[in-house]
Queue: 2 jobs
Job 1
Amino acid sequence: MQRFNARSGLKFKSDMRDPPEVQTSPGNHRSSPSTVAKPKWKHTKSIVFVIVSCVTIALGLFFVCYSISRSGRNRRVSLRYSIIIDGGSSGTRVHVFGYRIQSGEPVFDFGEESYGSLKLSPGLSAYAENPEGVSESVTELVEFAKRRVPKGKLKKSDIRLMATAGMRLLELPVQEQILDVTRRVLRSSGFEFREEWASVISGSDEGVYAWVVANHALGSLGGEPLKTTGIVELGGASTQVTFVSSELVPSEFSRTLDYGNVSYNLYSHSFLDFGQDAAQEKLSEFLHNSAAANSTGEGIVPDPCTPKGYILKTNLQKDLPGFLADKGKFIATLQAAGNFSECRSAAFAMLQEGKWKCTYKHCSIGSIFTPNLQGSFLATENFFHTSKFFGLGEKDWLSEMILAGNRFCGEDWSKLKVKYPTFKDENLLRYCFSSAYIISMLHDSLGVALDDKRIKYASKAGDDDIPLDWALGAFILNTATATFDYSGKSRKILDLSNVAKYKT
Ligand SMILES: Nc1nc2c(ncn2[C@@H]2O[C@H](COP(=O)(O)OP(=O)(O)OP(=O)(O)O)[C@@H](O)[C@H]2O)c(=O)[nH]1
Ligand SMILES: [Ca+2]
């Protein structure tokens, strides 16, 4: 309803429900003083009102910002921190974990706020000839960690360096020289550190840790053993297989993990030197030795795992990580002859080498016992990277891997370079061997059916997309132990009694 005020020319649009709103109707603007001038005191009142409301709004905004920053600071202040440095063959990564204790239990949150990581290449084993060189990269990783932990918390935050297969492949004295350099850096880092916290962990431990983070992410850790998910990890220098087996497992492969009120009897083994990078380098020696008979006379041996047209350079040898340097000498005698099936057969023959020494009921790889895989599995690291590269589906990724490998291995190198212009040669080169190696390992050796829906490739898992990195599993167990110690309950978390067997 609109009322017209004859004197002011102002239309009051008022409605019983709405506060009165003043409208000036067009053409009714009067310049004469006859327009109703407001009394002086009204102006002052509205100016005071405006100032008071601005100050109130400003104070309100300040309070909101302060409480947000305070709660963020409180969150960080209430957080505890733990740092793990993973010394892998292809790189060294630092993981910084923030966590809190709620009613005696650690609460893990691998979101951005509580978790950060940084990877530096090359890995520790690349410094075999120059152990002192390690200090630079470890120092850079420590500095990354210090930027994520409040200064006042450094002394209460433990830092560990846990090296894996790349270091296991070095001679013990060289391992110790490299570890001593890392200990010197960690000792002066300001974090809580003990000498024994810089070590080469056993492959079996590495597998258990990866199993722990996968089942934590999937929510099955602490649940029924046969409802847990196994892990197969194709790393750079080693491959881990870890899962709950209902078969009787010889003690050298058996691990007991007590978590919550549940005891898990795990099969866990790390196939040292059967990581993808190590296997690909071993293959050149294997091809040379096994095909010497039918080489082309001048000692040239066909290499079915390298696409035709690629010139295998001897300078690849100087690019090899420390533990592989001596393998490079065979590269010069190889000739690229890309063929997926032949590469798959060569990889399978390499995986079966030493089978005659098998003293168990059955051996799937070399003379090593592996129970028949049972239940669901996540296939990580190179299983994931290569499947991603070929854009394989979730369901039939193994059958698709064969098709993709056939195409890739059979393609001429010059065409692959045009198709994948952004890839460095040494990275693009890996995919023919990788596809064949994956099939020869999972299907030909471990007996996974090509259409088995229970095995999926992944790099993350669970609703929170938790990274499937064994270091997160090590952190979970370390913290759980710490918590149990902390709350006075001394319960066995991880039966490490037989870890000594792996240390030698
Ligand atoms: N194709 C591809 N491979 C990758 C990528 N990032 C890492 N890799 C490879 O994946 C493997 C890394 O797995 P990791 O477990 O981290 O290997 P690592 O820790 O360096 O070696 P280990 O000591 O055997 O554990 C190595 O073979 C890397 O070369 C990537 O983006 N693409
Ligand atoms: Ca690794």
Job 2
Amino acid sequence: MNGELRFPEGFLWGTATAAYQVEGAAQEDGRGPSIWDTFAKTPGKVLNGDTGDVACDHYHRYPEDVRLMKELGMQAYRFSIAWPRIFPEKGRYNPKGTDFYKRLVDTLHQHGILPVATIYHWDLPQWIQDEGGWANRRSVDYFVEYANTLFRELGDVVPLWITHNEPWCVSFLSHWLGQHAPGHRDLREALQVAHHVLLSHGRTVQAYREAGLSGRIGITLNLTVVDAASEDPADLRAAQISDGNANRWFLDPIFRGSYPADMVEIYTEQAGPFDFVHADDLDIIRRPIDFLGVNYYTRSVVRAGEDGMPKPVPPAGPVTDMGWEVHPESLYRLLTRLRREYTGLPLYITENGAAYPDRVVDGRVDDPERIAYLRDHFAAAHRFIQEGGNLQGYFVWSFMDNFEWAFGYSKRFGLVYVDYATQTRIPKASALWYRDVIAANGIR
Ligand SMILES: OC[C@@H]1[C@@H](O)[C@H](O)[C@@H](O)c2[nH]c(CCc3ccccc3)c[n+]21
């Protein structure tokens, strides 16, 4: 059929969520507080004072949710493991926490759905934050102990592991811009956090190899394409700096074993010497991974501010409910750049999706914009594959509506609508469309 874009045999189609955004059961079975429990309960931090206390109650409703994933033809499910369930207090391992993930993974296997586990998706145990959090180098050791526990308990039933979700968000968004937990605004601390998160990634890859497990391990980065608002040299330099912060600060250490020199110069000037980088740290960070997870949502356009630093330019084209420009061609540009400049390793789109103000009308949710968004981004991914790109799977964010961090429950990214008052799940039109894409392994 002409116009149909078929994906390679074995291409992995899935969806993604994260523990704090969907599980609820915040105190159940020994779970301890995370920095997001603390942040959400701090007045003014999260819209409407929303918290993850109940969320989608996935902790109890996962059997129904997995059944629905199966009905919708999903082949894989990317979820995250809540560190505060596994180590709720310093030095205390909580087997009941691990037991939940054993139940979840077992249920996924029973339904023929591939489990993909993200070890860290932002819910740092509060007891670690009380010791300085990721800015304290000891957090690296705590993380490796946590990861080794997961490899021991779940290593033979989880085939794909992701060490971290979006080090940029864990560091710059949370410790420099202050928009996410713990809500700090300190560039030097953000740089230390980025370094320790990357170091914990490298140490964990090492630990996974030493565990002799048969699965694969990688990391997920949120990446984008940064365009200059004009050809003015100041705007071009601003775009270069923005690209350095968003993309190269993480890609370079992981794939080249060094921080980007242009950015080191800027950050050293602004934040002081990098004395938190020890001699063999970068050799550890660059330990070979098996795949790279890419979270792509939008591109950015920047101009130079008075100080020459990048300033965002509001999108000219169509935007989602987050105000993010719909720009599928930049997914193609991003993937092509990764292949050209960084790696030929397998890539997975570990998140891509859109929020729109979905409404239930006569028991149904029509979301044509989300279908159009996904179709255009699938087509961009297909073009990359056609040109020889090694893209092996795609996880739509998100399986269901959930706690959208500082926006609380006001933003709906789900393929499945959640009525939070009743916890009813309603597959949106996009979920039924996605089911057909998976069945055809392609788009028309
Ligand atoms: O905002 C939608 C999703 C979140 O719900 C996921 O937990 C998170 O992994 C994720 N990352 C991005 C792109 C990076 C970003 C996150 C938050 C705010 C601004 C940019 C979008 N999303």
